[in-house]
């Protein structure tokens, strides 16, 4: 489609407005609610206040005009009444001498006497040549004077004695006092308004904080709950409605905590039962199946010996069957061995933890020659007792199996180290075993699917008061980080010393 310049311009203009509105909306909704409410409050207050100021200025103008008018009317009628009753020139002169003094208390007017010979009498305030309504009160802003000042107004009252004009009294409006007064009122009102609004804004800020801060805390607690920290609780806020929400949240978290604890207990029971069952099956396989297979082989050998004196045809037939029995027995033996290894690391407690892990890794390596396995161990003790050794063994076994089964990696790295954690004073505070299993496979999609393998790992570690963290960086790589306190019971230490004494 070809657009002419004006078409494309109008189209651009039409698109500009919605995009501008969208950008403003984004900007607005990205602000915290507290800021939004404060801005809205401020905007409404400023608009209404500007309107109120405008009305007030109009009112001030009217007020000044009315005041001026009243004062000037009063002055004029006073001068006219007094002038009407004059009998002779002496009285008139006396009046002109005292007129200003008499009217000096009259506000908002300026009296000036111009005698018949053009001579001007003393003025009340200022030099007579300056027009009175151009005099501006000090400290009142010009814009205010311009808006409030009434139009210039003056009266001339002629003074006559026996029909002879002897002087003229000029009465002029003098709005500066009134404007200054109105400005003072206006300024006080403005300061009051600013003070009140600042106070209201501060109060609103505090109140909103008291309402919104607990909500933010609640959101954070919910996020923590979502990530499995069911021990999280929120401080009940002072606001009644929020306190109810917080109480319900705490009850929910407590219920979840209880369910999790029950779940953990069941899982640990399951692990214990599973380990026990595995141990029993392993010992059956070892103690029963092994000797049975041995018996079969021994019997097969003796049958072979008994068959030797028999005729050639029969003895060779028997020998071939015996060979088949041996092959089957060998296969059964290797299956038995493999099963035993899977069920329970037979060497557990007989070789060191380092050797046990290296052995496990080598077995995986033999079965998966295309994958590079790296096993790094640092400062390990010979053994940490059966429960810790078995947990580490099982975690590595499950971690590597998961990587092989789900991730198709090229490299698998297992790092196992004994770490001494120092306190703030530099003293050794406690020691722990740190295990990291990393692969560069496909990673885990978020959210991680639930499986028995990972749950079991987590529970095994939790049972030893350790920490477990899994980060599946989809689309590449998975990392499992485990720490387990390295403590061992005194009994276990003694046993290990006896067992590995000669190798320590
Ligand atoms: N190293 C890994 N790489 C990719 N995905 C993994 C890895 N470990 C676990 N997973 C994912 O997590 C899920 C749960 O694992 P797990 O609890 O061991 O159960 P299972 O192995 O029986 O499926 C797996 O099904 C898999 O999708
Ligand atoms: Mg698994």
Automatic annotation (TrEMBL):
Q: Which residues form the Histidine kinase domain?
A: 284-488
Q: Which GO terms describe its cellular component?
A: membrane
Which terms in the Gene Ontology molecular function aspect does this entry carry?
phosphorelay sensor kinase activity; protein dimerization activity
UniProt-listed SMART domains: HAMP, HATPase_c
The answer to whether keyword Nucleotide-binding applies is no
Where does the UniProt entry say this protein principally localizes? membrane
Q: Which PROSITE patterns match?
A: HAMP (PS50885), HIS_KIN (PS50109)
Q: Which superkingdom?
A: Bacteria
Q: What EC number(s) is this enzyme filed under?
A: 2.7.13.3
Residues passing through the membrane, by range? 37-58, 190-208
Region annotation Disordered: where it falls in the sequence? 117-137
Query: What InterPro entries does the entry give?
Result: HAMP_dom, HATPase_C_sf, HATPase_dom, His_kinase_dom, LapD_MoxY_N, Sensor_HK_TwoCompSys, Sig_transdc_His_kin_sub3_dim/P
Where does the HAMP domain start and stop, copy by copy?
A: 209-261
**Keywords annotated in UniProt:** Kinase, Membrane, Phosphoprotein, Transferase, Transmembrane, Transmembrane helix, Two-component regulatory system
Q: Which SUPFAM superfamilies match?
A: ATPase domain of HSP90 chaperone/DNA topoisomerase II/histidine kinase
- CDD domains with a match to the protein in the record: HAMP, HATPase_UhpB-NarQ-NarX-like
Q: Does the keyword Membrane apply?
A: yes
User: What reaction does this enzyme carry out catalytically?
Assistant: ATP + protein L-histidine = ADP + protein N-phospho-L-histidine
Pfam families in the cross-refs: HAMP, HATPase_c, HisKA_3, LapD_MoxY_N
Localized where? Membrane
Q: What is this protein called?
A: histidine kinase
């Amino acid at each position: 489609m070809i657009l002419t310049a004006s078409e494309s311009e109008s189209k651009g203009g039409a698109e500009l407005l919605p995009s501008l509105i969208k950008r403003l909306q984004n900007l607005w909704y990205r602000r915290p609610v507290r800021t939004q409410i404060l801005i809205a409050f401020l905007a409404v207050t400023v608009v209404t206040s500007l309107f109120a100021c405008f009305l007030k200025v109009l009112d001030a103008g009217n007020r000044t005009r009315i005041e001026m008018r009243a004062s000037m009317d009063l002055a004029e009628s006073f001068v006219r009444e007094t002038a009407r009753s004059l009998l002779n020139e002496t009285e008139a002169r006396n009046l002109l001498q005292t007129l200003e003094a008499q009217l000096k208390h009259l506000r908002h007017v300026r009296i000036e006497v111009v005698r018949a010979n053009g001579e001007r009498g003393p003025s009340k305030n200022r030099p007579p040549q300056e027009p009175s309504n151009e005099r501006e009160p000090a400290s009142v802003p010009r814009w205010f004077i311009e808006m409030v000042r009434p139009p210039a107004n003056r009266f001339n009252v002629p003074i006559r004695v026996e029909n002879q004009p002897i002087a003229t009294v000029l009465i002029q409006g003098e709005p500066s006092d009134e404007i200054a007064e109105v400005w003072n009122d206006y300024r006080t009102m403005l300061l009051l308004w600013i003070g009140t609004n600042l106070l209201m804004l501060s109060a609103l800020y505090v109140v909103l904080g008291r309402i919104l801060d607990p909500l933010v805390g609640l959101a954070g607690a919910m996020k923590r709950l979502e990530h499995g920290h069911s021990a999280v609780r929120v401080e009940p806020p002072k606001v009644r409605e929020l306190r109810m929400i917080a109480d319900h949240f705490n009850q929910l978290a407590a219920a979840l905590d209880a369910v999790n604890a029950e779940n953990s207990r069941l899982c640990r029971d399951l692990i214990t039962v599973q380990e026990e069952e595995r141990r029993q099956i392993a010992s059956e396989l070892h103690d029963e199946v092994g000797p049975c297979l041995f018996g079969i082989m021994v019997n097969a050998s003796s049958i072979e010996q008994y068959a030797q004196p028999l005729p050639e045809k029969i003895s060779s037939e028997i020998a071939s069957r015996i060979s088949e029995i041996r092959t089957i027995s060998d296969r059964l033996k290797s299956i038995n061995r493999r099963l035993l290894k899977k069920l329970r690391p037979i060497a557990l407690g007989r070789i060191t933890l380092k050797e046990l892990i290296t052995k496990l890794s080598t077995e995986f390596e033999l079965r998966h020659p295309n994958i590079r396995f790296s096993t790094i161990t640092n400062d390990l003790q010979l053994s940490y007792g059966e429960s810790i050794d078995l947990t580490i063994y099982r975690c590595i076994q499950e971690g590597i199996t998961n990587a092989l089964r789900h991730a198709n990696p090229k490299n698998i790295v297992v790092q196992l180290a004994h770490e001494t954690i120092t306190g703030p004073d530099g003293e050794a505070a406690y020691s722990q075993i740190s295990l990291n299993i990393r692969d560069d496979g496909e990673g885990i999609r978020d959210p991680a699917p639930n499986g028995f393998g990972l749950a079991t790992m987590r529970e095994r570690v939790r049972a030893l008061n350790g920490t477990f963290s899994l980060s599946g960086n989809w689309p590449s790589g998975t990392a499992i980080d485990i720490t387990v306190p390295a403590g061992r019971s005194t009994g276990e230490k003694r046993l290990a010393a006896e067992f590995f004494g000669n190798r320590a």
